């Protein structure tokens, strides 16, 4: 564990070869007294996650890309039986330093043992449920030893302590297959573990319900033996998981276990004390192991054979060394039920300091190789053996932690008073150690629980500088966890670091953690989470003008978009980007272009008239594009409504003209009031205004389908012909005003009216009357010419212009001889 003396297999520090001594003896000629200062190598590791190539870079952040065909790893191969034995030995907790403790037998567990083996031999999974300290781990070890030859892949020992179903599946894959630097994706993992046939022993299980059922469904060829406490969630009803309840030992078995720990027979006084303890502790084996440690310490006091010579410093001599051999009464019943404080008071100072660090780390005991640096004692590694022999520790995977109930007892005795300072010291030590190039990712992941416990303590603390210390530790440990492919610990370190960076106000580090979380989510297939984390990182780095970091984030974001089938990131709006201006709609047509096209369908739904490009992006991914679509719909709707209004106006005007023509033959007496001077000149067809010629049918010589042209009346107003079409005329010399009448149809152009014939040289055939008033008696009843009223003929020129364009305005002018002639403006 010495980071300054790395082995040849660690991070390319292979010094084998013929030229290794020569390289070490090389000197710079300019500085002959100093050797080359070799810079420390950063842990940059490339590994395969599914079909992705992940480059773990602890300096600039991880990079991810798709694997090229030549970079795909080979198919994983199974470990041999010898390799499985070596891996199991390496995964076991280290043997504590110091003299070994007594070998304890498995008492009153033979029936449970045979029952468990019977279930596993039939291929059925079983859960051993018992309270903490009931001896589950010892029973699981005994059952695993008997099932070594039941399955083709042997027995696989896993730790369920703070592990999810995905963590257990990947741990099972690594225990059976050999695939260096390769972590399969979800589909590949399920395909590989489905073919594993092994007896899987999982101690300290924390899963239940649906996650546990997911684990069982993914491994149909495995028989599981779980060890759990009663507070773990129960499995589902259809899990077909057998459950075996584990209770405490009987009175006689408890006393026998106590004698095995003390390694002698009990006196009557001690037997009675042990009987009371059995009633108090309900026969839990852990309590009798700790009680045996108390009796062993009492024996050392009574006989005076204390091992005082093992302590170099007199300050480390336990307190019982001065009590004398006769002043050692039996512990009280309360001390026997909660013996942690009394046991710790009779241990060395290094052991007590180790307990303080364990309390600060939430019950996680640092590896014995770290104790000399943490405690400040070169012999502190022996403290682990003292604590283990006293029953204050229990194994947890490849490490140790405080036994059940010990942490609460130590906190009540004041061992947690310096927890914040100890957690900060541990964080500083682990920051240096985990970031050292000589420390392999496997060694870092083995210490992951202690590192994460230190992180959690610092993030939750409120003292100055704790958040910054947590950021440094997470920054150093997270790449090691990623390279060790322990992604559950990697995610926890990143989230703790991100929270600590937010508290400390370190935006650059917070952006780094967001980037790493996005890369992790991309590797695990959570694309929405990856997109959110990467966009947050890009926004922060853009605000800091960190162009290399922003480029790395955009590359990863492009890979997310490619996996999700989204448009390219350039077409999407990211934090800090400029919002593109909406596309301008084409200008409306000029006035001389008809606005109503005959090919337009009748608009019943304005949204149906809008033609837009189909956007494959979901609505929630582009709010700007949705706004542009809504604006286009509104503009298109207004333009279509204007066209509809113009068409309706044209229909109304044409209907009015047709209606006047139909009603010209009615019996209305007012419509037959004409003057004697009003007569049509059949010889001169050019003096009047001919009506519209029909589309088909014969034409008359005068240019009208039913008769001659209309002639101006005596008052200068235009009178319609028999066809109902008005014709312009001018006021005669006898008119009182000499201006055209306001009620004349020539006061404003009407849509669909014919253009007047511009021939002012031909005067009317009949001179206008001098009085200027029409006669009451009709003179030509066969050709009535009713005069339309002002309300029927007058239209709005602006509305007509919008529908059919500008029309010619006809006004009347008077010549020198008093003859009125129409003029065109």
Summarize the structure.
This protein has 27 helices and 17 strands. The chain is an alpha/beta fold.
Topology:
Blueprint: H1 20-24, E1 27-28, E2 31-35, E3 45-49, E4 52-56, E5 63-66, E6 77-78, H2 81-91, H3 110-121, E7 126-129, H4 136-146, E8 155-159, H5 165-176, E9 177-178, E10 182-183, H6 186-193, E11 199-203, H7 210-218, E12 223-228, E13 242-245, H8 251-262, H9 268-281, H10 285-303, H11 333-337, H12 340-345, H13 349-360, H14 371-375, H15 383-389, E14 393-396, E15 399-402, H16 406-412, H17 419-434, H18 441-446, H19 448-460, H20 466-483, H21 487-504, H22 507-524, H23 527-543, H24 547-564, H25 623-662, H26 790-793, H27 797-804, E16 810-814, E17 820-824
Parallel strand pairs: 3-10, 7-12, 7-13, 8-11, 11-12
Antiparallel strand pairs: 1-2, 3-4, 4-5, 6-9, 14-15, 16-17
């Amino acid at each position: 564990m010495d980071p300054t003396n790395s082995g040849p297999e660690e991070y390319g520090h292979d010094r084998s070869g013929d030229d290794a001594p020569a390289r070490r003896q090389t000197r710079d000629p300019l500085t002959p007294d100093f050797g080359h200062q070799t810079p420390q190598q950063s842990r940059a590791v490339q590994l395969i996650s599914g079909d992705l190539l992940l480059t773990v870079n602890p300096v600039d952040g991880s990079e991810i890309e798709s694997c090229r065909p030549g970079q795909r790893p080979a198919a994983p191969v199974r470990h041999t039986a010898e390799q499985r034995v070596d891996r199991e030995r390496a995964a076991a907790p280290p043997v504590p330093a110091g003299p070994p403790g007594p070998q304890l037998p498995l008492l009153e567990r033979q029936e449970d043992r045979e029952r468990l083996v019977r279930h596993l031999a039939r291929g059925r999974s079983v859960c051993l449920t018992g309270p903490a300290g009931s001896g589950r781990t010892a029973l699981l070890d005994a059952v695993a030893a008997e099932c070594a030859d039941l399955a083709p892949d042997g027995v696989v020992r896993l730790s369920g302590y703070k592990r999810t179903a995905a963590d257990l599946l990947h741990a099972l894959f690594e225990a059976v297959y050999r695939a260096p630097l390769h972590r399969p994706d979800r589909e590949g993992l399920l395909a590989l573990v489905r073919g594993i046939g092994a007896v899987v022993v999982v101690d300290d299980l924390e899963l239940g319900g649906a996650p546990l059922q997911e684990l069982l469904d993914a491994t149909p060829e495995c028989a599981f033996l779980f060890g759990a406490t009663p507070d773990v969630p129960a499995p589902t009803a259809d899990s077909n998981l057998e459950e075996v309840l584990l209770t405490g030992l009987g009175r006689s078995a408890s006393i026998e276990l106590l004698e095995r720990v003390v390694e002698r027979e009990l006196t009557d006084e001690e037997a009675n004390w042990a009987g009371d303890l059995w009633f108090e502790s309900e026969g839990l084996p852990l309590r009798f192991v700790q009680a045996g440690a108390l009796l062993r310490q009492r024996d050392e006091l009574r006989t005076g054979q204390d091992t005082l010579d093992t302590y170099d410093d007199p300050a480390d001599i336990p307190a019982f060394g001065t009590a004398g051999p006769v002043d050692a009464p039996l512990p009280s019943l309360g001390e026997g039920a909660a013996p942690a404080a009394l046991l710790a008071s009779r241990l060395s100072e290094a052991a007590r300091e180790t307990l303080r660090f364990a309390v600060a780390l939430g019950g996680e005991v640092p590896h014995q190789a770290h104790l000399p640096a943490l405690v400040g004692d070169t012999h502190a590694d022996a403290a682990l053996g003292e604590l283990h022999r006293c029953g204050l520790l229990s194994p947890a995977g490849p490490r140790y932690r405080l036994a059940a109930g010990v942490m609460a007892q130590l906190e009540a005795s004041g061992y947690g008073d310096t927890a914040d300072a100890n957690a900060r010291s541990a964080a500083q030590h682990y920051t240096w150690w985990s970031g050292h190039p000589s420390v392999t990712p496997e060694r870092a992941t083995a210490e992951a629980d202690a590192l994460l416990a230190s992180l959690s303590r610092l993030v939750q603390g409120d003292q100055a500088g704790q958040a910054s210390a947590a950021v440094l530790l997470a920054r150093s440990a997270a790449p090691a966890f990623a390279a060790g492919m322990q992604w559950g610990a990697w995610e926890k370190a990143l989230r703790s670091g991100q929270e600590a960076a937010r508290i400390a106000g370190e935006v650059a580090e917070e952006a780094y953690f967001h980037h790493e979380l996005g890369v992790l989510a991309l590797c695990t297939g959570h694309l929405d989470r990856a997109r959110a984390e990467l966009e947050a990182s890009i926004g922060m780095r853009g605000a800091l003008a960190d162009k290399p970091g922003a480029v790395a984030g955009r590359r990863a974001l492009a890979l997310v978009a490619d996996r999700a089938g989204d448009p390219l990131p350039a077409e999407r709006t990211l934090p800090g980007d400029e919002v593109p201006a909406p596309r301008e709609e084409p200008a409306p047509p000029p006035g001389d272009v008809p606005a109503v096209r005959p090919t337009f369908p009748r608009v019943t739904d304005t949204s149906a008239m809008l033609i837009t490009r189909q956007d494959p992006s979901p609505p929630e991914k582009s709010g700007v594009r949705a706004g542009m679509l809504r604006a286009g719909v509104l503009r298109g709707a207004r333009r279509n409504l204007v066209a509809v209004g113009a068409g309706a106006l044209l229909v109304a005007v044409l209907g009015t003209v047709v209606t006047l023509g139909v009603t010209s033959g009615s019996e209305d007496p007012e419509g037959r009031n004409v003057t004697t001077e009003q007569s049509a000149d059949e010889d001169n067809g050019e003096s009047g205004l001919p009506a519209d010629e029909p589309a088909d049918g014969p034409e008359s010589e005068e240019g009208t389908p039913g008769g001659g042209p209309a002639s101006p009346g005596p008052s200068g107003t235009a009178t319609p012909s028999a066809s109902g079409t008005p014709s312009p005329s001018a006021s005669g010399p006898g008119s009182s005003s000499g201006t055209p009448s306001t009620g004349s149809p020539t006061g404003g152009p009407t849509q669909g009216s014919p253009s007047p014939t511009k021939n002012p040289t031909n005067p009317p055939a009949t001179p206008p009357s001098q009085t200027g008033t029409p006669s009451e008696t009709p003179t030509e009843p066969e050709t009535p010419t009713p005069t339309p009223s002002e309300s029927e003929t007058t239209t709005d020129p602006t509305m007509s212009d919008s529908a059919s364009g500008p029309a010619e305005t006809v006004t009347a002018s008077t010549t020198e001889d008093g003859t009125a002639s129409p003029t065109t403006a």
